Amino acid sequence: MKKAALIILLAFSLPTAALASMDATESGQETKKSAKSKKKKPKPITTAKAKKAIANFKAVAAKVEPIGEQICRSFHKNKPRKTCDFLIKVNNDGNQKANAFQSLGKDGRPVITFNINKLLKVRNNDEIVFVLGHEFGHQIAQHIQKTRIHQEQGMLLGNAIYSDDDDKDKGKRVGKFHAMVTYSKEFELEADVIAVHITDRAGFDAGRGSRDLKRLRGGSSQWYSTHPPSPRRIQRVKKELGKIRAAKARGKVAPIVW
Ligand SMILES: [Zn+2]
Prior knowledge:
Elements: H1 3-8, E1 21-23, H2 30-39, H3 48-75, E2 87-91, E3 100-104, E4 110-115, H4 116-121, H5 125-140, H6 143-161, H7 170-201, H8 206-209, H9 212-215, H10 230-249
Parallel strand pairs: 2-4
Antiparallel strand pairs: 1-3, 3-4
Helix pairs in contact: 3-5, 5-7, 6-7, 7-10
The protein binds zinc ion.
């Protein structure tokens, strides 16, 4: 990490909230969004349409969960069982913008949360499975854990650089933010790669499922964005689909490498 890169950050207002979760396919403004949505009272959506969407999601998630967990266990054989014991939830607060994310529960279990606006926005089950696969991917590749380590390293370095600053927390904030934006774009691409495999192995269409990426805004190749631009994500998905098809043509199963 270079000092110059850290200084550029001072031009931005730095988010102080911790990155406690890996968000899914929405723009990289998750921290600001959640801060805003916290102020508003939750507005549960309980329409017949919402109930139907939740019932459908549960049925789809029930098909994907064993496959995601099995793949997870294949990579984390020596870790505690909870590492791959996923909890899949729906938040029916209509005040939240469409989103899905992975977090870690207090008990250390990975949690995948879809909110109701996300469920009302998806066009088909392939899209649901792709986003689910993406969130499984964040845990399989241990992105929250890696982000924490990177942020701690960033905070130590930031503290050293800004040790003389009047604002005693500046170094911490700058270092933490730097760590977050440096790695998160690559993590999103890795989660997409794993999502392609999970979607395919669950019997859904990963090409169709990833079309949602085309409608997304907010991703950027700029260094301070947390999400890569959509064309880069689509390109990576296509490449992975090609590998899966080629392996199938030889009667094999493509290995998951991210
Ligand atoms: Zn993500």
